[in-house]
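Example 5.3 — diguanylate cyclase
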Amino acid sequence: MILTARVVLLPASILIVLGLFGLVMIDQQLRGSMASRVEHELHRLAESSLVTLEDANRPLSIVNVDPVSKRLGEAGQVRITFVDASGVVAGDSNVEAGAVGSMSNHKDRSEFVDAKTVGWGHAFRYSETLRKDFFYVAVYRPIEIQGENIYYYARASVSSDVLKHQITQMRMALLSILLAGVILISAIAFLIVRRAAMTTLMRQAALEKEVSDKTAEIERMHELDSLLNACSDLNEASKVVGKIIPTLLSNSSGAISVYKSSRNQLKMLLFWGRVWGDSLYYNSDQCWALRKGHEHLSRLDSSQVECEHFTQAKDRATLCIPLIAHGETIGVMHVLKTQFEDQELVIAKAIAKRLAMSIANIELKSSLRQMAFKDPLTHLYNRRYLYETLEQWFSVSHKNRTEIGIVMIDLDHFKQLNDNYGHDAGDKVLKEISQFLLEATRASDIVCRYGGEEFCIAIPDTTAAELTQTVQKLCEELAEVSIEIGRTQRLKVTGSMGASIFTSHCNSIENTITEADEALYNAKEAGRNCVRFSKLLEDKLNASD
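Solution (predicted structure tokens):
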């Protein structure tokens, strides 16, 4: 209470003493100081108006410039005018949009003449357009628009009525303070103290909320980075995208499209928010973001052209951001939202950068896996992939008590074929036989090049009877395959096959492969182009009979 009383009474006493003396002097100083202050403020507003126009970075037409002048004029409660170097008015906050183009040329106005000479100028005169006395301050300097430096004027002005009104208000305020006396001053001081305390608390709360929101945003970004980096394929990445992005871009939905291998079409692969209603495929020339090389935003309330691949986004604004990794565009991030705030655009770009690098890394890892697990000649899986997959099937087979068929295939007389027709012919035979095996087996089966002219087929969820029928049919169909060598010759290649079966009672899948290999050896001993079975498989067949 003592501190509050001092805070209230001390300013009141000082103000009364100074007010009596100052009232005499204030009238003399008021006009000059007010004019100087207004001139300084108008100069600052004119400079900041040019900065705002430069930041907009759009062509300097009336359509683009006039809305900027009106927004700035409304915000600063002054008249803002933009004029090009030739004196043509491109925007005026106090003139109707349709009338701006018909305004007279301003290059000979005194403030513009001075501004062109020394960078800025001022004037006080009667406005024929608005029929009032105005105080003008004009600034002239180059601004950078789309990579080009263009000289431009910005003028800030205020009506003389405003100046007179401000002077009158100040006189009345001083007189009221003196007449009200200590009681009024004390009350005002008390309210100021109280208001300051409340404002401090409100600012502190707002700052804490801002820090909290920013911290949460950073944490979600880190989580997005961490989870995406841990993803081994795009299916896993889709789950991460569907969970994290809606927390960063609230009330949004969207998709991530990635270039197909042909590079002329993109496919939507990752989604979040609403069910995607547009096509899953589109050509690269249908997206303005890909054409421009940077983001493309189409708002609901603007005339911005919308990308052709959007056909179901009539009630929402659309945003497309190219995904660029290591200097190469790999896809596009598509976002749909009723309205985009400036901060949301910043967040969307940050997300796009992270997605681009993550998708590129996932595709790189996938490519490396393919190189590690695929035979470069036939593009079949190799022995390493076979054993790793069978290890996984091994535990599933024990758990579900299912059986796995193993078929070993060796092409007959392949060395002789190489000697007679050359290695190119041998490579072609291996490729076409590989394609035949892929087409003759189920999608769930694994066809591997085991080594040289030897192949292995792993058949999950089968039975002894089904396995023997499959292998017999495969051997017969292989013998019918005709392969063109050169332009005049066709070859038929046969294969010897050995089959075994892995059951839940077996100890290891390697033993089953060894048994199938031994059965293959028996088939070759029996004259080739035939099938032989392991002892376990024959026992199961006999038991079922």
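Remark. The chain has three domains: 2-165, 231-368, 383-544.
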